[in-house]
Specification:
This protein has helices at about 5-10, 40-50, 60-75, 90-95, 95-110, 130-150, 160-170, 185-195, 210-215, 250-260, 265-280, and strands spanning about 20-25, 50-60, 75-80, 115-120, 150-155, 175-180, 195-200, 225. It is α/β, with parallel strands linked by helices and about 280 residues long.
Length: about 280
């Protein structure tokens, strides 16, 4: 990690006793005026604290191509590609949605792309006029994941009921992940019953996140994953600072404490689950 990055990012946390996977990050994105991320530096920093593998997600036209190029270069990374739900209405309005989705499908066929995602629904940033086309694109991504035998990673913001309904109507892929899970206990139970994996980010460490920790408590260890969603959702006590994969240990320890689970056991479960979902790196 460069000197500039050390001055911008939080300090290194205590390393984990067993390596884990950051199930969802965006190494191509910066925020709050942070300098561009050096991918190898980010990988090295994460490995130093026991985060030895990552899933890089590209969810617009440019970042999907960047993701393919980057996971080819770095063996510690696997990738996911999709068109983010907030991108869908933009390309539809420009009458180029079919063209962009074809590009996503072509990129998804690379062996080191193991995820279709993040796809899903976002009713927070897209108004009612964009809901129908978002839902149509979500169904397209579900079908693509099944056809290519890739895991599906779902973005769900203010759309819990419709996400679950569409997954049921279309038939979810065998490996379905609720990225940055934000639902309640009832939704968590429904997802567990359906066999989905629930991925938790730094939000689970926030002081006001007791309802989210309650939802996590009903998820069995064999369906738990962890992520950063870097550079967003930085865990406590660095909430608001830029996030990065090397901060995963803070979230893992917050999860273990909330679940009253040994950190070693949780790390082993996360590692096993990640391999089950994404295969070997």
């Amino acid at each position: 990690m460069s000197r500039t990055e050390r001055e911008t990012f939080p300090p290194f946390p205590e390393p984990l006793p067993v390596p884990v996977v950051d199930n969802h990050c965006h190494l191509n994105i910066t925020r709050d005026g942070s300098p561009p991320v050096d991918v190898q530096d980010a990988i090295d920093a994460a490995a130093f604290v026991g985060v030895d593998r990552m899933v890089q997600i590209g969810c617009d036209r440019e970042s999907a191509q960047w993701t393919v190029d980057t996971v080819i270069e770095h063996e510690e990374l696997l990738g996911g590609v999709a068109l983010h739900p907030n991108e869908v209405p933009i390309h539809a309005e420009m009458d180029e949605l079919d063209e962009v989705l074809e590009e996503i499908e072509n990129l998804s066929r690379h062996d080191r792309i193991r995820v279709i995602g993040e796809t899903g629904l976002d009713y927070f940033r897209t108004g009612p006029e964009g809901i129908a086309i978002q839902q149509e694109a979500f169904r397209w991504h579900i079908e693509l994941a099944k056809r290519t035998d890739k895991a599906l990673q779902i973005h769900d913001r203010d759309a819990h009921a419709d996400v679950l309904r569409i997954l049921a109507e279309e038939g979810a892929p065998e490996k379905t992940v609720l990225h940055c899970f934000s639902g309640d206990v009832e939704m968590a139970r429904e997802c567990v019953e359906r066999g989905y994996y629930l991925s938790f980010s730094g939000t689970v460490s926030f002081k006001n996140a007791q309802p989210l920790r309650g939802a996590m408590a009903v998820v069995p260890p064999h369906q738990l994953l962890v992520e950063t969603d870097a550079p967003y959702l930085t865990p406590h006590p660095h909430r608001g600072a830029p996030n990065a994969p090397y901060l995963v240990p803070l979230t893992v320890r917050a999860m273990a404490s909330s679940l009253d689970m040994d950190v070693v056991d949780l790390c082993k479960a996360i590692c096993d689950n990640s391999t089950r979902v994404y295969g070997q790196w």
